[in-house]
Amino acid sequence: MIDQQVPLRGGAARLPVRPRTGRYLVLAAVFICAACGLVYELELVALASYLIGDSVTQASVVLSVMVFAMGIGSLLAKRLRSRAAVGFGLIEAALALVGGSSALVLYASFAWIGESRYALVGFSLAIGILIGAEIPLLMTLIQRVDRQDAGGAVADLFAADYVGALVGGLAFPFLLLPMLGQLSGALFTGTVNAAAGGALVLWVFRRDLTSRSRWLLIAANVLVIAVLATAAVLADDFERAARRAVYGDQVRVALQTDIQEVVLTGSDRSSLDLYLDGRLRVSSRDEYRYHEALVHPAMNGPHARVLILGGGDGLAAREVLRYPDVRSVTVVELDPAVTRLARTDRALSELNAHAYRDPRMTAVTGDAFSWLRTARDRYDVVVADLPDPGISASTKLYSAEFYGLVDRALAPDGRLVVHGGPAVSRPRTYWTVEASMRAAGLHTRPYRISGRYAGFVVGPDRATGRTDEVHGWGFVLAGPAAAPALGLDGGAPRLRSLTGPALRDAGQRAEAARVRGQAPSTLVHPRYWEER
C-alpha cells in the first residue's frame, strides 16, 4: 500500500524552531487555553449559583448553552483556516477579554441592574463560540508545524485539551478561589490566556504573519492585558462599591469562606442583618417571631437534651437556653465562620444573648447529614434551623433519608421541628417537606404563623427589601411515636409573639390549606425545584 501525504492548505509553516519543538509548543498552548476555558465555565456556574440561586439550573444553562455555542464556533472557524495563525491569535485575545471580565460584569449587572440571567446566557454563548473556534484552527496549525496524519493530530490535540481541562477544573476550587477570589481569579485567568495565545502566534508563527497582522495582534494583546490588569487593580474598590449597592451603606463584616459569603450589616443589635450567600437569614427587626415559632412548640415536653441542626448564629439556641431545665444544647453548623461571628461580633452576640458563653452549649462544625449518620446520642428535641429547601445545596437536608436519620437520633418521646418555607406563597414546597417527614415514619403536626415580616426573606432568591415577600412561615412539628400536641410548655418563658391559643389556631389554618398528594423528596428524586 502506498501512503500518500495529502498536501495541506497554506503549505508548511516557516518556524523559528524545529518542527518537533513547534509541535510541543502548540500542544502546550492547547493545554493552557483548555485550562483557562474550563475556569471560565466553572466561574460562570459558581457566580450564577450565588447570584441567582439553584446551582442545578444554573449549571445546566451554562453547560448546555456553551456546548451548543462551541458547535457554532467550530463552524465559523472554517472561514479562518486560510489565516489560522492570526485568526487563532485574535480569538484568544477576545476569549481572554470576554472570559476574564465575565465575573466582574455579571456581578455588576446584578448589583446595579438587579438581574444577571441575560448576562449569564450572553457570556455562556460568547465564550462557547470562542472556545469552539479554537480546535479547528489549532488543528490547522499543528499540521502545518509537523506534517502528521489527521488522526494522530486530533489525538494529540484532544489529549492536551482534556488534560488542560483537568488542571483548570482542579485549579479553580483549590487555588484560584481561595487565593484570588471569583473576580480576581477570572481576571488572572484571562491574562494567562492572552499571554499564552499571543506568545504562540507571535513567536512560533511570526513568519506567517504580515507586518499589519503582527502589529494588530500585538496591539490587541497589549490592550486586553492592560484592561484586565487595570480591572484587577481596581477589583477591591469595585467589590466594595457593588457590595454597597446590594447590601446598603452599613456593611460591617464581609467574609468569603470556603462555603459561602457572610455579610453583616447594621451598627448595633437593633439594626443587624445577616446575609449568607446574598440571602437575608437574620433581621434583628423580626427574627424573634421566627425563632419563637420554631423553637418553643418543640419544647412542650421533655427537653433536657436539645440538638440544633444549623443555627450557627445562636438565635435558636438563645430560645432553647431560656429553659433552666435544659442540660445540654448541641449546635451542628457547617460554616465555622458563622459560629465565630456569633461568638465574637458584638451586635450578633448581643442579639443571641451570648448563647455561646453558656456552659450548656456545644458547637460542632460539620454537615448535618454526615454528622447524623455517625451520631449515637439520643435527643429530646431536634430543631432543624436550616437554609430554605428551595436552595439546591439544601435539598438533601429536607429529604426522607435525612428525616430517617433524625428519627434515629430522637428519644422515643422526642420531637423534631422543621421550617418548611413560606406555606402560603410556596405551598407545594411546604407540603413536600411534610410528606418527606411522613415518609420517614414520623407523625407530623403542621402549623403556619401568618403575617408579613419585612426584611426576613427565606426563599431561594436574594432579599430585595420588599415587604410582601414573606407571607408568614410554615413549620412542621413531628414525633416518632405520635404527632405532638401543639402547645407551649407550662414552664415556657414569656414570649413576645406567640401564645398557646395562637399556636393552636396556626395548626388549624395549616390543616385547612393542606395540599394533598405531594410525593416525598428523596436523595435520588429531589422535588423542591417546582416553585421557582
UniProtKB/TrEMBL annotation:
GO terms for molecular function: spermidine synthase activity. Residues 226-480 form the PABS domain. Its EC number is 2.5.1.16. Pathway: Amine and polyamine biosynthesis; spermidine biosynthesis; spermidine from putrescine: step 1/1. It catalyses: S-adenosyl 3-(methylsulfanyl)propylamine + putrescine = S-methyl-5'-thioadenosine + spermidine + H(+). The chain crosses the membrane at residues 24-52, 58-77, 89-113, 119-142, 154-177, 183-203, 215-235. S-methyl-5'-thioadenosine binds at residues 260, 333, 367-368. SUPFAM superfamilies: MFS general substrate transporter, S-adenosyl-L-methionine-dependent methyltransferases. Gene3D superfamilies: Vaccinia Virus protein VP39. The keyword Membrane applies. It is a multi-pass membrane protein. It is an enzyme of class 2 (transferase). Keywords: Cell membrane, Membrane, Polyamine biosynthesis, Spermidine biosynthesis, Transferase, Transmembrane, Transmembrane helix. Pfam families: Spermine_synth (PF01564). Its main location: membrane. The active site is at residue 385. It is found in: Cell membrane. Catalyzes the irreversible transfer of a propylamine group from the amino donor S-adenosylmethioninamine (decarboxy-AdoMet) to putrescine (1,4-diaminobutane) to yield spermidine. Belongs to the spermidine/spermine synthase family. Homodimer or homotetramer. This is Polyamine aminopropyltransferase. It comes from Streptomyces poriferorum. The lineage of its organism: Bacteria, Bacillati, Actinomycetota, Actinomycetes, Kitasatosporales. The gene is speE.
